[in-house]
Design a protein that fits this description.
It holds the Pfam family DM9. The protein is mainly beta and about 180 residues long. About 10% of the residues lie in helices and about 45% in strands. The structure holds 2-acetamido-2-deoxy-beta-D-glucopyranose (NAG).
């Protein structure tokens, strides 16, 4: 009994002091079927696919493809798609933010969606051309800082410094020791 008590406290101290952002989310291979654990907001899923690194983007579940941006152009990806999944959608929320607010501490609990040009990519969302688009967010340390999306109208890059970023509610709450 005493042992369990001490162990419980030790575990809680570890949770409170480790400072690591524990997360349980995972990226599931997409084979044309959405599983119940896929994270979606307003019917929009969050996906990634390998191209010049690994790029997050908007998943089209009818066409089984991702739309995102690379080298200043809109791009469609169909191979190696993965979808963001978790047992608990309440762990996620969108935060309205500007590029200059993306300090290191703030980004610690932002969901990493990929990598490009030696930079981690976070997951951004904008309402643009009448739809929600999921796109890449470069941190300020990158020469390409901010949200990088695309125009459906002419397939060129759409860049903005005001967007929403996907955050993950970080640490598990300590359990009650009795
Ligand atoms: C693409 O379309 C947008 C919206 O009309 C416009 O602002 C942008 O300048 C266009 N880009 C090019 C390269 O034509």
């Amino acid at each position: 009994m005493m042992k369990a008590h001490i162990l419980c406290y030790l575990v809680n101290i570890f949770i409170l002091t480790s400072g690591v952002t524990n997360h349980n989310y995972y990226w599931r291979d997409y084979w044309g079927r959405i599983t119940p654990d896929a994270i979606s907001f307003d019917g929009i899923y969050i996906a990634q696919a390998p191209e010049h690194g690994l790029l997050p983007g908007s998943l089209d579940t009818e066409r089984n493809e991702i739309t995102t941006e690379v080298f200043g152009r809109k791009i469609i990806l169909r191979r190696g798609i993965k979808v963001l999944c978790d047992q608990n959608i309440e762990s996620f929320h969108w935060d309205k933010i500007s590029t200059n607010q993306l300090v290191k501490e703030y980004l610690e609990d932002a969901v990493v969606g990929g990598i490009e040009s030696d930079s981690l990519l976070y997951i951004g969302r904008i309402f643009h051309e009448g739809v929600f688009k999921i796109g890449k967010v470069f941190p300020p340390s990158s020469p390409f800082s901010g949200f990088r999306g695309w125009y459906n109208f002419n397939d060129t890059q759409y860049k903005t410094d005001d967007f929403e970023i996907l955050k993950y509610k970080s640490l598990p709450s300590p359990s009650k020791c009795q």
